[in-house]
Amino acid sequence: MAEPVPTRRVIVAISGASGAVYGARLLQVLQGQSGIETHLVVSDAGWRNLQHELDMDRPAVEALAHRVHDVANVGAAIASGSFQCHAMVVAPCSMRTLAAIAHGLADNLLTRAADVALKERRRLVLMVRESPLHLTHLRNMVAVTEMGGIICPPLPAFYLRPQTVGEVVDYSVARVLDLIDVPHDLAPRWQGLELNAP
């Protein structure tokens, strides 16, 4: 008898852009959600950034996911369209990873899994991290958008008056959770602005 599929499988990928905290925080939040199974894939540069930016070693990061896949293992389950998956998030997404996804290179497990998400018309969210942007960056974002992916740069919302870096991070992660239809109470929602009458 076939094993029942969890309510939702979410692939979390961490590439080599600055902002490893977004991927780590997303994993932490998803770990606390019932009915969600996370699959993690990290590029070589992603592992270096997790260590450099967060002082997180590999075992600490791997403990946040249900399953961990080596980026070089293109034969892993998440490389196939037959792997049932709710969504994939690349957090953060480097310009190199964006370019590979935009051009369908599928040259490692991370970019292959993203390619699968696009071809199967599944939700793919890229938290692209770079500034300023040149024309090729912008064209690659357009290409991914035209294929059905969602470009979601991690940008602060100052109207919520964040007081800590953690609140800034949580706001961006909350936006991603909304995009992949995962309920949360990670950040306050905008209730509108009431102006005093003149």
UniProtKB/TrEMBL annotation:
EC number: 2.5.1.129
Domain of life (superkingdom): Bacteria
InterPro entries: Flavin_trans-like, Flavoprotein, UbiX-like
Short name of any one Pfam family annotated for the protein: Flavoprotein
Record-listed dimethylallyl phosphate binding positions: Y159, R175
Positions contributing to FMN binding: G16, A17, S18, S43, S94, M95, R96, T97, R129
Sorted UniProt keywords: Flavoprotein, FMN, Prenyltransferase, Transferase
SUPFAM superfamilies in UniProt: Homo-oligomeric flavin-containing Cys decarboxylases, HFCD
Family per similarity comment: Belongs to the UbiX/PAD1 family.
Function: Flavin prenyltransferase that catalyzes the synthesis of the prenylated FMN cofactor (prenyl-FMN) for 4-hydroxy-3-polyprenylbenzoic acid decarboxylase UbiD. The prenyltransferase is metal-independent and links a dimethylallyl moiety from dimethylallyl monophosphate (DMAP) to the flavin N5 and C6 atoms of FMN.
Name of the molecule in the record: Flavin prenyltransferase UbiX
